[in-house]
Amino acid sequence: NIRPISAKEAKEEAVEMMTFAASYVNPITNWDGTIIGDGQVGKVTLAINDLIARDMTDDSSPLLTPLSSY
Q1: What does DSSP assign to residue 62?
Q2: Phi and psi dihedrals of 19, rounded to 5?
Q3: CB-CB neighbours of 51 under 10 Å
Q4: What's the mean pLDDT in 5-14?
Q5: pLDDT reported for residue 1
Q6: What share of the chain is helix, strand, coil (3-state, %, to 5)?
Q7: What is the pLDDT of residue 37?
């Protein structure tokens, strides 16, 4: 379910990340001095970044359309 959440609720989550077209997935480990989760970049964030990087550089990747196709 996608729904709006408050900043207070977001700061209580165990894992947070945001994504931009030019920078893959960026972990959020601290928000206004509030440590998110354990304050470290999580395995899920690292794995997503790895998949995106491999997909964008490997024309044989089955995940998405290769960047070279555009």
Answers
A1: S
A2: -135, 150
A3: 15
A4: 84
A5: 65
A6: 35, 15, 50
A7: 86
Distances, alpha carbon 22 to alpha carbons 8, 9, 39, 42, in Å: 28, 27, 24, 20
| Burial letters 17-42, b for 16+ CB under 10 A, else e | beeeeeebbebbbeeeeeebeeeebb
Q: What percent of the chain shows pLDDT beyond 90?
A: 0
Tell me the two tokens of residue 60.
């044989």
What gap in Å lies between CA 58 and CA 3, rounded to an integer? 34
Strand bridging mode 24-27 / 17-20? antiparallel
Q: What is the distance, to the nearest Å, from the Cα of residue 26 to the centroid of all Cα atoms in its chain?
A: 5
Distance CA 30, CA 16 (A): 9
Give residue-wise pLDDT tens across range 27-41: 888 888 888 888 898
Contact present, 29 and 41 (Cβ < 8 Å):
yes
Contacts of 20 by beta carbon, 8 Å cutoff, 6+ apart:
26
